[in-house]
Design goal:
Order of helices and strands: HHHHHEEEHEHH
Radius of gyration: 27 Å
Largest sheet: 4 strands, parallel
Strand content: 5-15%
Number of strands: 4
Structural class: mainly alpha
Strand order of the largest sheet: 2-1-3-4
Length: 252
């Protein structure tokens, strides 16, 4: 089954675009520490340590952005979790590179660039979460009724498996564990091939609410939900056996 090409999404605000976020991070996290440091101490302009710190911040910001694009797939709380680790990784790689190569660098500029970079990313995150309400299309099968209780998103239930019905939606959510009809499975496959984001309902709900749901409990290999109990029984038996051994030489 072949579906029509979806309509392009509506134009988003400037601060939600990756290019603007990257350019702002470069300006605040790399150029601003270099300019402030050079203004306070004019002799630092043109010094190798100051220049290396600026280029190091640029590389760290680029690495952090690349990692965020690779990891940050879900909206909500999960996207906030990757900000600090990716920034730490990017700037940490740069610091390690400076230590291994023994190149001169400005510590204050590197530290200030890291702090300003993190503050910029969190500011963008909070502004985006408060001002932008994303619209997500719902495949009406399975456990998708829980999504109606989440007010941070605009939900659009689908009545038919047509990609043109998802125009203006940022993503599609479905319950992959449900018994989907063949035409809806073909719809999800076509959506993925068209580059549309398709979420699993459980992971999306956990990311937006911050609450993890347990599907079921399963016993361990001992047939019990108390794995420490067998350990204490074995340790108690070993202690009692060692006390009952009266020989002075080490037991073999």
């Amino acid at each position: 089954m072949r579906h029509e090409t979806p309509v392009q999404l509506k134009k988003q605000p400037l601060f939600t675009r990756r290019r603007f976020q990257f350019a702002g991070a470069l300006l605040i996290g790399a150029l601003l520490p270099f300019a402030v440091r050079g203004t306070i101490l004019p002799g630092l302009f043109g010094e190798p340590a100051s220049d290396n710190a600026m280029f190091g911040n640029v590389i760290a910001i680029a690495i952090a952005l690349w990692m965020r694009l690779s990891i940050e797939t879900y909206p909500g709380i999960r996207s906030a979790y990757v900000i600090l680790p990716t920034a730490l990784t990017g700037h940490g790689i740069v610091v390690v590179a400076f230590l291994l190569t023994r190149l001169p660098y400005d510590r204050l500029a590197l530290g200030g660039g890291f702090i300003l970079h993190v503050l910029w990313l969190y500011a963008l995150y909070f502004v985006t979460q408060r001002t932008i309400q994303q619209r997500i299309a719902i495949v009406p099968f399975g456990e998708v009724s829980r999504l109606a209780e989440i007010g941070s998103m605009e939900w659009q239930p689908l009545a038919r498996p047509r990609l043109e019905d998802t125009a203006g939606c940022h993503a599609i959510v479905a319950d992959f564990a449900a018994d989907l009809p063949d035409e809806w499975e073909a719809f999800l496959a076509d959506a993925a091939l068209a580059g549309r984001i398709v979420y699993q309902v459980k992971q999306l709900s956990e990311s937006l609410t911050g609450r993890v749901e347990l599907d079921h409990l399963s016993e361990n290999s001992f047939g019990s939900l108390l794995p420490a109990r067998g350990y204490f029984h074995l340790r108690r038996s070993a202690i009692s056996w060692s006390r009952s051994c009266s020989c002075r030489s080490p037991c073999r």
